[in-house]
Amino acid sequence: MNEAVIQAEGRAAGRAEGRAMIEARGLRKSFQTRKRGKTTAVDAVVGIDLRVEAGEIFGFLGPNGAGKTTTLRMFATLLPPDGGEAVIAGADLLRKPAEVRRAIGYIAQGGGTWDDVTARQELVLQARMHGIGKAEAQRRAAQSLEAFELADYGDRNCKTYSGGQRRRVDIALGVVHRPKVVFLDEPTTGLDPQSRAHMWDMVRKLREEGMTVFLTTHYLDEADALCDRIAIIDAGRIVAEGTPAALKREISGDVVTVRVAAADAEQVGAAQSTAAQSTAAQVTTAQKAADLLAAEPYARSAEARDNGELRLAVDVGESAIPRIMRTLESAGIELSTIELHRPTLDDVFFAKTGRSLRES
Amino acid sequence: MKTLRDIWLIFQRHMLLMLRSPLWVFLGVAQPIVYLALFAPLLKPALASLDSGSMATAYRIYVPGMLVAVALGGGLYVGFGLLGEIASGVVERARVTPVSRYALVLGRSLRDVVAVLVQSAIITLLSLPLGLFVRIGDLLLAYALLALISLTSSAISYGIAIRVSNPNVLGQVINNVAQPLMLLSGTLLPIALAPLWLRRVADWNPYSWAVSGMRALFAGHSGDPAVWRSLVIMGGLVVVSLAWSARLFARSVR
Ligand SMILES: Nc1ncnc2c1ncn2[C@@H]1O[C@H](COP(=O)(O)OP(=O)(O)OP(=O)(O)O)[C@@H](O)[C@H]1O
Ligand SMILES: [Mg+2]
């Protein structure tokens, strides 16, 4: 377990005494759509309960159409909820929307800049719309250009920027007034791997500056690497919530896959055995090994498959592997490969919804 | 105080954008000028029945109507620009800030007023050699009235744009609003030439009153009750239309 994970879990464990930055209860929204005179309701968000602590990077992971943007737009005061309530940075979303707006920054999925204006002009106006005076706004704009590595392009019109530069401008605009909470809708969608890693660093920097970050993503690796805690959302509902590590552990521990060598492979081969015979021998050996390992204390379950493979569910893969090898060796079973498979967030998603996030 | 500051902020940004591409302001006067050069002489006999029949009189009646047409007709189409801005996300970004919602409408509308006043000044200047005569005080009051007209038409257009949200439908809706308003205000042909029943209908069109006020000012009758009536009616319409579209702005811009 690496340091970041330990840190993240520490933060999650400290939830009880932490200060909530976002607290939502039963938030929901449905849209009326009209098609050939018939109105149908799309239940975009069916009931969101969540709590995000000050200083967290909280991720909303879900497939297309899960309701991520809709939830974020409700938090950002852009969309009135149909029901439920939320408190953001201490201000009630429904009763004090103006106060919420002062405390938050919102970076939309598609961004939003004027084509014929420079990033610097945009930053100054954005700061001034937040009530900051002219001189201070200019100072902040210069700082932001520096911080988001835009200084070289800051005086060029926004329409000339590359995708990565544009996204950095979007984020700089969202945080120029130093909000307490930042809502980031899919910060890295459409960026190349290098720009994505760069963007992750910038998001971490926002947290270091004391901001609470709420981001949405449909990338498993992003949720895993960047977020302290995530909520998995599907069809407008949160289906799982926790640190990425805890969620994965909850699923099944680790999985170790062992492939046994076909017994007496050399002799059988010499006697013109068929492939079927060889596999049959493997399966028998695998079954024997499975029976043997299932009795071991570290194995939760052991199951032989009909391709000569053996799947073991264990709590911690690294410590189980040497013991598995010892057990098999002393029983005289030779193994050809052994593989450790850690559950991914996709396994978590699959366990909760029956679908894979990669496919949807 | 904060609202005024916010209005100024938004206005500045839109002025900056307009100055970046000033061409359309000038394109906007091309059609009125063609009308001025070709139609006014054609209309002279018709207009003559109303007054002494000189070319100067024809322009005195024709130019103020033309200016209202520019302020009303031009203003009603500004909603298209707003739809583009909404699609680009800049409107949403502004809405998440504490900036005044009135400022988001009024800052834009004031830019439209500036455009209309520039166009009006060009049309007035070009009409002077054709024989138009108007006192400077009356002209300034006329421009104030034009500013009010322009505020109403652009606020209405922004409101409709937000309600309709589909650019194809918006064109239809605006045409259907603009045509009766223009025809029933006597901008190009004085409504006084119309049959009585049509004049009664036109009485319900606030812009018909605005045109009467404008013609009175260009005729040099600044004391004519039509002048203060038109100012009051347009002032009231400004308040109502701005309140309406600012509310829509706050609530329903996607
Ligand atoms: N304005 C709207 N009118 C009608 N339906 C809408 C509207 N906005 C969103 N929806 C519907 O609500 C559901 C949730 O949409 P939402 O944009 O929140 O998804 P998302 O999780 O952000 O997806 P993506 O990853 O594609 O951005 C979708 O089915 C969408 O079609
Ligand atoms: Mg989305």
Automatic annotation (TrEMBL), chain B:
<feature type="transmembrane region" description="Helical">
    <location>
        <begin position="61"/>
        <end position="83"/>
    </location>
</feature>
<keyword id="KW-0813">Transport</keyword>
<dbReference type="InterPro" id="IPR000412">
    <property type="entry name" value="ABC_2_transport"/>
</dbReference>
<keyword id="KW-0046">Antibiotic resistance</keyword>
<feature type="transmembrane region" description="Helical">
    <location>
        <begin position="21"/>
        <end position="41"/>
    </location>
</feature>
<dbReference type="InterPro" id="IPR047817">
    <property type="entry name" value="ABC2_TM_bact-type"/>
</dbReference>
<feature type="transmembrane region" description="Helical">
    <location>
        <begin position="227"/>
        <end position="250"/>
    </location>
</feature>
<keyword id="KW-0472">Membrane</keyword>
<dbReference type="InterPro" id="IPR013525">
    <property type="entry name" value="ABC2_TM"/>
</dbReference>
<keyword id="KW-1003">Cell membrane</keyword>
<comment type="similarity">
    <text>Belongs to the ABC-2 integral membrane protein family.</text>
</comment>
<dbReference type="GO" id="GO:0043190">
    <property type="term" value="C:ATP-binding cassette (ABC) transporter complex"/>
</dbReference>
<keyword id="KW-0812">Transmembrane</keyword>
<dbReference type="GO" id="GO:0046677">
    <property type="term" value="P:response to antibiotic"/>
</dbReference>
<feature type="transmembrane region" description="Helical">
    <location>
        <begin position="140"/>
        <end position="161"/>
    </location>
</feature>
<keyword id="KW-1133">Transmembrane helix</keyword>
<dbReference type="GO" id="GO:0140359">
    <property type="term" value="F:ABC-type transporter activity"/>
</dbReference>
<feature type="domain" description="ABC transmembrane type-2">
    <location>
        <begin position="23"/>
        <end position="252"/>
    </location>
</feature>
<dbReference type="Pfam" id="PF01061">
    <property type="entry name" value="ABC2_membrane"/>
</dbReference>
<dbReference type="InterPro" id="IPR051784">
    <property type="entry name" value="Nod_factor_ABC_transporter"/>
</dbReference>
<protein>
    <recommendedName>
        <fullName>Transport permease protein</fullName>
    </recommendedName>
</protein>
<feature type="transmembrane region" description="Helical">
    <location>
        <begin position="181"/>
        <end position="198"/>
    </location>
</feature>
<feature type="transmembrane region" description="Helical">
    <location>
        <begin position="113"/>
        <end position="134"/>
    </location>
</feature>
